[in-house]
Amino acid sequence: MGSSKEARMTALRILLLTGAAVMIAVGVSRGEVGMVLKKAVVLCLECIGLG
């Protein structure tokens, strides 16, 4: 009985990991890495009071 639940959990983990990898690849291919990095830098500078 536990084996079926473990198999389902493994399948779910693989599905989520695959989905995350696809989303990352789409973001990289659209050139969104630079935009995300720029927003992260601005947010960090605002947190420490320089922005």
Question: Topology of this protein?
Answer:
Layout: H1 2-29, H2 32-47
Overview of the molecule:
This protein is mostly helical and about 50 residues long. It has one domain (about 1-45). The protein is about 85% helix and about 0% strand. The chain has 2 helices and no strands. The longest helix is centred in the N-terminal third of the chain and has 28 residues, at about 1-30. About 0% of the residues are buried.
State which percent range the strand residues make up: under 5%
Number of domains: 1
The largest β sheet comes out as:
none
Report Rg. 18 Å
Number of strands: 0
Outline the low-pLDDT stretches: none
Distance between the termini: 56 Å
How many individual helices?
2
- Report mean pLDDT, rounded to a whole number: 91
> Helical residue percent?
over 70%
Which structural category fits the helices and strands?
A: mainly alpha
H/E element sequence: HH
Q: What does the overall shape look like?
A: elongated
Spell out the key features of this protein.
single chain; elongated; 51 residues
What's the short story on this structure?
This protein is an all-alpha fold and 51 residues long. The chain is 86% helix and 0% strand. It contains 2 helices and no strands.
